[in-house]
Amino acid sequence: MPEPRVTVGDALVQALARERLRIVASLIRITGDWDLAEDVVADATERALERWPGDGVPTNPAAWLTRVATRRAIDLARRANLERSKLAEVAALGAQDTTELVVPEPPALEDERLRLIFTCCHPALPMEARVALTLKVVSGLSTAAIARAFLTSEATMGQRLLRAKRKITNAGIPYRVPTASMLPERLEGVLAVVYLIFTEGYAAADHALAEEAIRLGRLLAELMPGDDETRGLLALMLLQHARRDARLVDGELVTLEQQDRSRWDVAAVDEARALQPIPGAGRGLYRIQADIAGIHTAARAAADTDWAAIVRLYDELLGILPSPVVRLNRAIAIGMCDGPLAGLAALDAVAAEGGLSDHYLIPAAQGDLLARAGLPAEAAAALRLAADRAPTETERRQLERRRHELLANRPER
Amino acid sequence: MKYLMFVATDPDGERDDPPGEVTIEEWVAKHDASGARVRGDRLRPPEDATTVRKRAGKVLVTDGPFTESREWIAGYDVLECADLDEAIAIAAEHPMARHGRLELRPFWAIDQA
Q1: Is the model's pLDDT at A276 over the cut of 60?
Q2: Each residue of A30-40: pLDDT tens digit?
Q3: What integer pLDDT is reported at residue A56 of this predicted model?
């Protein structure tokens, strides 16, 4: 009697979960065609569902899938009679008997994964395609799931992925880890893609997407053990993600100051703490931001926060990343450290520099500092302006709630 | 892979010429020697350009390039490279990468879909 289907399904799911990256990477290496590689792996998966119930689960499911997918690729190449392509060479090699086809010993898995990540994040691809391709190929998410996460239709996302895969082939984007001279810049680009996936998940409170980014961060930290920014990024994401249950309660956003700190994820904080700086490594923007997040985490109560240290870290960050948002956060930290009036003056300076005009974060921070300065009416007006400009409904509601609290608690005059 | 590298001007490019930087002549010599540069030329400025169209059977000749813009194509090189990263590395060595900008376009092979 054939084994029950459930067992076959389990074996397949396990093989894919553990080995999918290696299988896809092998096929990309063999065919040089990203789209074809994905198609034939999908075909091989279907074939497994047909064959395994009768034949039994093979001893090495991943090798079976790779072999079947490779044969399928060769058949397709023959059918299409692609003389020029790299596949033709492979087809010629395996021409004698495809049933005896020996799949070449794949390189170390670490190299395959790095190759995939660096190619998905190649700067010649548009940023949104890098994000989508990384989630599709490296994380193994479905096109539908990626489309949902980025609030677009499956058809649009499918087109985006297809265009990206075609550009890899047509523009000659290499399938390899960049040379040493290009590596630092390219790694920076890879980290930016991972952090973008995280912030997208964080902003939308999409925990699954944020966790996918953390998984990618762990993978990179494992593959690039000598790079401190990679560790810094993972630590930063873990510390931010650790607050997820305290940050969103019953669908409502709770500010860092008002969060119930006992609901922070201790395991995530511990994992971040273990990612200590590599001795002698320079400090980059993710490491500094992780340090800032770490100071918040270290404070048992909001009032215990070491704001002076945070201001110093923002000063350090401004040296690398002189962006308006960093200046804004520094102004808020000054307000917490030196008092609301100092903070408001710093905020005015940020607003005067431009770059953030009409952005909701400036009036939101002003509202907060005005409330601390004992000016509830002015604070409420600033919060109303911020709520009008808020980019998401959850943020708008949070700002409105703050405003109503202020007005309700206003002393009688 | 074969790439056409457009060498374009850029009003926002860097103006200075730090000592020791490679000249265009040195760049050409190096990549001619390695075989990566197949050919290339400078082009006369847009004032000397002529645009030709044929509409409803009638040839229309106008003065100037396709598009009026602050940037214009000052030259081109044909590069033969293993892949895009190799082409990027060669392009990045060109002095016009700093003064202007370079665009890499893969050739569309005749038999390619």
Answers
A1: yes
A2: 888 888 888 89
A3: 86
A337 within a domain of the structure (yes/no) = yes
pTM, two decimals, is: 0.84
**Cβ-based contacts under 8 A for chains A and B:** 34
Query: Strand pairing partners for A248?
Result: A253
Q: How large is the ipTM?
A: 0.90
Q: Which amino acid is at A157?
A: M
Report if residue A170 sits inside a domain: no
Given A53, A72, A106, the domain boundary residue is A106
Number of domains chain A contains: 2
Residue A147 has which token pair?
């489309």
The angle formed by the CA atoms of residues A286, A206 and A12, to the nearest 5 degrees, is 100
The enclosing H or E element of A153 equals none
In Å, how far is A126's CA from the nearest CA of chain B? 15
Q: Is B87 on the interface with A (CB under 8 A)?
A: yes
- Kindly determine whether residue A172 and residue B106, on different chains, have CB atoms separated by under 8 Å: yes
The CATH number given to B2-43+71-106 is 3.30.70
Cβ proximity of A202 and A241 under 8 Å = yes
The reply to whether A154 falls in a domain is no
Identify all chain A residues contacting B111, using CB atoms and an 8 Å cutoff: 83-84
For residue A29, give how far its alpha carbon lies from the nearest alpha carbon of chain B (Å).
Answer: 15
Which of A106, A127, A157 is the last residue before a domain boundary?
A106
Letter string b/e over residues B43-56, b meaning 16 or more CB atoms within 10 A of that residue's CB: eeebeeeeeeeeee
Question: Which range marks the domain in which residue A50 is found?
Answer: 5-106
Please give the share of chain B, as a percent, with pLDDT higher than 90.
82
Where residue A91 falls among pLDDT bands split at 50, 70, 90?
A: low
Residue A359: its pLDDT value, please? 85
Q: Which helix (H) or strand (E) holds A233?
A: helix A228-241
Is A149 inside any structural domain? no
pLDDT tens, position by position, A208-247: 999 999 999 999 999 889 999 999 999 999 999 999 999 9
Residue of A84, A121, A122, A170 to mutate when probing chain B, most B C-beta within 10 A: A170
Chain A residues touching B89 at Cβ < 8 A: 179, 181-182
Q: Which residues numbered 26-85 in B keep a CB inside 8 Å of some CB on A?
A: 81-85
